[in-house]
Design goal:
Length: 203
């Protein structure tokens, strides 16, 4: 009789403990799926969505973060194979309430700079721009065209032609021909100086 009374008194408590255990297991499961590392598998640039794999699972088409999306906006489409942080803000299992935060380097896409003061951007066609806060220098490279600048001087090179600007002078160089502008005047150097069709220097 005592056992029956005890079971009757403890029954609701045992049932409540079982409910709490189920709720805790659900919370643990949701917490584990809230934030995961994923890899981009498919991109739809038109809708600004992508599909991301994480483990054996694949999300549906979800949104991804951009550098900014307000009055000032910038779009950067992720690359298939790029690593991301997958945020499941809804805590569900379907992945519908997930967003992808790209920008994690990997073996496939390593960092392009290991210098703390150097900010560098490299495009897939090889075009590259960077700025070094320590030396105050800017560089831009696009095939045969390069632009290098600092607080003291700017150099521009397009194939065989180059242009140099500093606080005291401007120099334009094309092969063996150059034009220097400074406080003293204009200085030509080259095999021929032609002024309106008239050669004014010996060949």
């Amino acid at each position: 009789m005592f056992d029956a009374l005890l079971r009757m008194q403890l029954g609701p408590i045992v049932e409540r403990l079982a409910e709490m255990e189920t709720q805790l297991e659900d919370l643990y499961r949701r917490a584990e799926s809230f934030c995961r590392i994923g890899i981009c598998q498919q991109v739809d640039a038109a809708s600004n969505t992508c599909k991301v794999s994480h483990g054996d699972l694949l999300t549906p088409a979800i949104r991804f973060f951009n550098p900014s999306a307000g009055a000032q906006t910038e779009t950067r489409i992720p690359t298939v194979g790029e690593q991301c942080l997958l945020l499941n803000y809804g805590g569900g299992e379907g992945g519908v309430q997930s967003v992808a935060l790209f920008g994690l380097n990997s073996d496939r896409f390593p960092p392009v700079s290991s210098v703390a003061t150097l900010t560098r951007r490299r495009h897939q066609d090889g075009t590259q721009s960077d700025y070094d806060d320590a030396s105050h220098t800017f560089n831009w490279v696009n095939g045969p065209t390069t632009v290098s600048g600092s607080r003291e001087q700017v150099d521009i090179k397009v194939g065989a032609a180059s242009l140099s600007l500093n606080a005291q002078s401007i120099t334009l160089q094309i092969g063996g021909t150059s034009l220097l502008l400074d406080a003293g005047g204009a200085h030509f150097s080259g095999p021929v100086v032609d002024h309106q069709g008239r050669v004014i220097s010996p060949r």
